[in-house]
Each structure stands twice: as structure tokens, then as C-alpha cells.
Amino acid sequence: MTDSRNRGSLSFWPREHGAYAQLAFPLLTALALGDLGLAPILLVVAIIAVFLAHEPLIVLIGGRGGRARREFATVARLRVATLLGLAVLSGAGGWWLAGPTARAWSLLPLGLALLLAPLTLTRREKTLAGELLVASALSATLVPVAVAGGLGASIALIACAVWAVVFSLGTITVRAIIARAKKSGGPSWNPYFAPLLCAVAMAIAIAIAIGTDLPALAAAAVVPTALVALIFGVLGVHPRNLRRMGWSLVASNLAVLAALLIGLG
């Protein structure tokens, strides 16, 4: 008989805390830049439901171990069915109420999610390619939500690109720090690649802000997070300090959000 304490010990909330920020900031950007109507709200509900279905799905495919799958399969199956049902209903309603442009742009996050599905089902989601694809897919949810709220597609794509770059820089820096601490025998550029990438991203963002017609503040919005990631990458912090780094990245994301809302609003 299964111990009731064990049965109650498994959480179906997503365990990757950084993913919460990757979901929340693009959606907040979309809702703040566009008009707050029923169509974008329904789309947001669908996106959140899919996000919450991820953890019970991982349990079902054995990603949390065989024992968890055996003991919690029934609950996990019910949660997946309920959340995906909610996603289909709210997503269909939002898609129906949205204009044709928003409907077309909904294919962007859907397409990235389809690319991610094989990695999830084969438990390769935590590879670098998988994590970068997750960051891109969550950033892309901004576009149909914002366009459904009346925002121009070009502006929505700028904001989406900023968040995709910001999250990718954070992901690469964290993985480089962990690889360095584990001395995993990776490429010799591991200690230097992430800080260099952050510096290049900052330089490109500043050059775009100065030399193009894009709103300067929006073009340079990647700088706060890139700077934080650069500092942590250069310092080579120990993995036990990754929580502190994570909160620092979230704080820098608030600056990114403010820059996008002011620059694109």
C-alpha cells in the first residue's frame, strides 16, 4: 500500500523556476502593450494551461522516475486531460475572437511547441537546444496575445525577440557556470563563451539603438539582463549561488519589461 505521505509529496507545479519568469514576462508585456480584451485574455488562459500541463505530462512519461509514474499516473492523467481541455476551449475561443492577423501569428508559438514536443517526449528537454527552444517558444507567446489586443505585429515581434535573447543569455550563462563547476570536459571556450556572448549582445543592442529607427530604449532593452549575466559569467560563481543569480536575473527582467513598455508603448 502506498504511504499517504509519499502520495501527497509529489507536486505537479512546474519545477523549473526560471520557466515561470520566461512565461510571465512576455505575457505581461503583451497584455500591457495591447488592449485588454476577451481574445487576449482567453489566449493567455490557454497558454498558462498548457504550461501547467507540462509537469504532470513529465510524470506520465517517466521523467520523475518509475515509482512516481506508477503511484501518480491516475492523478497526472486527470490533470493533463483537464488542463489541455481548458487550453483547447479557451484557445479556440481566443482564436475565434482574435483578428485574422493574430490567428496567423498563433502559428509561431505552436510551431515552436511542435519542435519541442519530440525533445520533451524523449527526455531531452534539458539539453541546451531544448532549453533554448523553450525560451523561444515562451517568448513567442507574446506575439499572438499582443496582436489580438490590437498591437502591430512588427512591434510585437521586436518585444518577442528581446525576450528570446534575454532568456537565451541567462540560460547559456547558467549552463556555462554549471559546466565549469563540474569540470565536465566541455570545450575549452566554456568559461569565456557566455560572457563574450553577453558582451556581443550588449554591443549589438546599443548599435541598433543608436544607428536605426527602432525606439532606442526598446532596442537596448537586452542590456540589463545581458550585463547581469556577464557579471556572473565573469565571476564564475559557484552553482550553490545560482538562486541568487536567478533572482538577480528576474530583477533585471523587470528593467527589461520597463524598457519595452516605455520604448514601445
What would your notes on this structure say?
- The chain is built from 13 helices and no strands.
- It has helices at 4-7, 17-33, 38-60, 66-97, 100-105, 107-121, 128-140, 142-148, 153-182, 190-211, 216-219, 223-235, 242-264.
- The longest helix is centred in the first third of the chain and has 32 residues, at 66-97.
- The model is unreliable at 1-7 and 185-189 (pLDDT under 50).
Count of DSSP H/I helices: 13
What is the chain-wise order of helices and strands? HHHHHHHHHHHHH
Helix content bin: over 70%
- Main β-sheet: number of strands, strand sense, barrel status? none
Q: What structural class should be given to the helix and strand makeup?
A: mainly alpha
Which spans have pLDDT < 50 for at least 5 consecutive residues?
1-7, 185-189
Ends distance: 58 Å
How many β strands by DSSP? 0
Morphology call: flat
CA gyration radius, whole angstroms: 19 Å
For the residues shown, what is the average pLDDT? Answer: 88
Strand content: under 5%
List keywords for this structure.
265 residues; mainly alpha; 13 helices; disordered N terminus
